[in-house]
Amino acid sequence: MLSEKEIDYNTEIRLTYKRSIPARRSARISDVARAAGVSVATVSRAVSAPEKLSEGTRRRVLAAIDELGYTPNTLARQLRVGSSRMILVVVPRRSNPPFFSEVLRGVDVTLVEAGYVLITGYMEGEDRDLRLIELATSGHLAGLMTTSGKLPQVNGRSILDGGLPAVALCADPGVKGMPAVLIDDEAAARSQARHLLELGHRRIFYVTGPAGNYNETARHRGIVAELTAAGLYPEALVECPGDYVFEAGHRGAEAYLALADRPSAVICSNDECAVAFMKTIRSAGLTIPGDLSLIGFDGIEFADYCEPALTTIAQPRFELGATAAKLLVEMISGVPPSVDLDAQNRSFLDVDLKVRGSTAAPPAGQRD
Amino acid sequence: MLSEKEIDYNTEIRLTYKRSIPARRSARISDVARAAGVSVATVSRAVSAPEKLSEGTRRRVLAAIDELGYTPNTLARQLRVGSSRMILVVVPRRSNPPFFSEVLRGVDVTLVEAGYVLITGYMEGEDRDLRLIELATSGHLAGLMTTSGKLPQVNGRSILDGGLPAVALCADPGVKGMPAVLIDDEAAARSQARHLLELGHRRIFYVTGPAGNYNETARHRGIVAELTAAGLYPEALVECPGDYVFEAGHRGAEAYLALADRPSAVICSNDECAVAFMKTIRSAGLTIPGDLSLIGFDGIEFADYCEPALTTIAQPRFELGATAAKLLVEMISGVPPSVDLDAQNRSFLDVDLKVRGSTAAPPAGQRD
DNA sequence: CTGAAAGCGCTAACAC
DNA sequence: GTGTTAGCGCTTTCAG
């Protein structure tokens, strides 16, 4: 272990002078071999297959390892064995932190437990995507995970070109054979609409997600399906374009308030958007659920702490991440998947419609 | 680029059978050399120093690279040159997603722009810390960043043992010579208390952060200092232990409500905690800021969307991350830091006390 | 049970 | 300008 003085030395020097002092080299396998009086092969075995060594040799080598503070250079090991233990997870930029952070926690916990290291790569624009593609083909990676319906792709090159084992998470890019772990967005959105219809609402204002987005498309389909089944489509649906962020909720609410004939129910594409919608509505003097019912999507913690608490679709965030990670590890190690997959290699996890204070029957005048 | 059939093939096979098909090997430098009719050295130059090649050769090699979809194996390169471009940022587990995700975005944007790859490692418990320490000494890393006052450390081994360039972010672990980029927590907390005193409040209820936490310690010191300066300490301060999460805010509010003689002002250790505090208080029928004033810390977006909007200390989240990343890159490349550092190698960024609806003068009966 | 030696893919002297 | 070659630190046959 470094003494405090040494730490100071290293950091201070590097901070101030131009490479005047080379980094202190850490012990290599040959150092350990020399110290223990054995060959490098023996040291290698002491680390990866200690049972192959005699009691005495093993003890001697292990002591030397400890003594020198030796850690194998994984870079070299990986180059030699031709496989790494790093996994890249691709996340769209600025994406709903309270939602994705919990999904990624599920990924992280599972992956680390299985001995992998997680690299998070944010998508945003072509430059960025190109770096990700290069990373994916650079030999560093053991596997790939993506949380977006669109894969990084720039002039003909795709992130899948490396041929890495890959799984999709929270969205299905629809690549043939690439498994996906997600919820059934369409069914979930249907249940949102059904909940509102059951309460007696007959028209819905919908602040959408970004056009073309996988989840948005599926959810939109669900809402339409439910309204259609109730014989209310298309008159009953008023759409307002949004993109999953606070600002969209705010603007959505302004659009709603400007309406001459306001629907009594509102669906926001996610909780973040719904929270902002709620705030703007209340600032305008309307009450929820007195004047209108509001429902979100995701089930982030903040939804519990609005006033009133937000009715929402709670996604199994941690479990989504954990399941996808488990599946990926199985693919990498070549064992059959323990996760149930349908014919398209998809695994759907259950959601929970959490009914809380933001939804209720419509005001008397608006019931049919 | 893979045809769709190949993608399917790869994934499907791996998913189903036990390593029956080896991964398709990607092109190596020697493949390109052969295809272009040059030596490997020339290919290497075409990638890293194209100006050293003649027009014709360069074109020929580049064409071959493109043709074969060659990406250099960074693992091999790094092993050879002895340095990597990966940076580990250590984050405490489950830590305030809306706050840290924005800080990390600042880190990520800056680092990627400088050509680095970011690895996020969560701390939690010794096992985990040991993995991080091993990662830090495995040859993979170019630098290290930590967002916690406590560094991963297990039986004598510290994450700094590898001698990597390292910078602290949002907290100062107090390692001699290790630079830190953060805000002045003490001064910020003083300004919170001062704001409340200026409004006329004379007693403060404080839901603390976790005992021993760097930020908590500094903030506590600030509150005490301000109250002391006003001649109100210690009588004026009622403390309630918390730990930065929703639940702490909820429990803090319950403790507050149970008080016989309630202070007219409340400081919560962070916004998340304050949001929960607010919710519980309102559910109990008290009004904010009518019955009590409430102030948070961090400046996350959700603070804007409470009812009323939360008065808080807005930290420059993105800038904190970006500044720390910039400094780290400079340390790695050996150039003098462009970031202003004090004698202890710290750089303090400015905060902003955002006064909003949750703070006001105390109710008439409670003024002095 | 242990050692010698080849080589993973790449870069950087050093020659020509 | 371009090629030859010696390793970076490690694992893994293959001998003994």
Automatic annotation (TrEMBL), chains A, B:
<keyword id="KW-0238">DNA-binding</keyword>
<dbReference type="GO" id="GO:0000976">
    <property type="term" value="F:transcription cis-regulatory region binding"/>
</dbReference>
<dbReference type="InterPro" id="IPR010982">
    <property type="entry name" value="Lambda_DNA-bd_dom_sf"/>
</dbReference>
<feature type="domain" description="HTH lacI-type">
    <location>
        <begin position="27"/>
        <end position="81"/>
    </location>
</feature>
<keyword id="KW-0805">Transcription regulation</keyword>
<dbReference type="InterPro" id="IPR000843">
    <property type="entry name" value="HTH_LacI"/>
</dbReference>
<dbReference type="Pfam" id="PF00356">
    <property type="entry name" value="LacI"/>
</dbReference>
<keyword id="KW-0804">Transcription</keyword>
<dbReference type="Pfam" id="PF13377">
    <property type="entry name" value="Peripla_BP_3"/>
</dbReference>
<dbReference type="InterPro" id="IPR028082">
    <property type="entry name" value="Peripla_BP_I"/>
</dbReference>
<dbReference type="InterPro" id="IPR046335">
    <property type="entry name" value="LacI/GalR-like_sensor"/>
</dbReference>
<keyword id="KW-0678">Repressor</keyword>
<protein>
    <submittedName>
        <fullName>Transcriptional regulator, LacI family</fullName>
    </submittedName>
</protein>
<dbReference type="GO" id="GO:0003700">
    <property type="term" value="F:DNA-binding transcription factor activity"/>
</dbReference>
